[in-house]
Design a protein that fits this description.
Blueprint (H helix, E strand, L loop, with lengths): L24 H20 L8 E5 L4 E2 L5 E10 L8 E9 L4
Antiparallel strand pairs: 1-3, 2-3, 3-4
């Protein structure tokens, strides 16, 4: 068997990141928001900046044999305008028959 890894203890939930203690309901609401912000950043990461350039190509609707309709749209994102790098994204939209 391998060795057991010892982790640092969890932070005090009643102490703000700047060291202040929570003493009121309003303080707990603020601390809870602080904890949620940290957890979301760790779990999901942070949002990148908005792309500087975005292009959208809207496809044409195509009738499918079962009565549904389908359209494929293409989006191109350029993180930096004119840098020559783009991030493609293809979306397929399908509508049920009768809509």
């Amino acid at each position: 068997m391998g060795e057991v890894t010892i982790h640092a203890p969890l932070p005090d939930p009643f102490r703000f990141d700047d060291g202040r203690s929570v003493h009121t309901v309003a303080g707990w609401d603020a601390r809870r928001e602080e904890i949620a912000t940290r957890l979301l950043a760790v779990q999901y990461g942070t949002m990148p900046p908005a792309p500087e350039e975005t292009r959208v190509e809207t496809g044409s609707w195509e009738a499918l044999p079962d009565g549904r309709r389908r359209r494929v749209d293409r989006l191109q994102f350029a993180p930096v305008r004119g840098a020559g790098r783009t991030v493609p994204l293809e979306l397929t939209l399908t509508c049920p028959s009768g809509v």
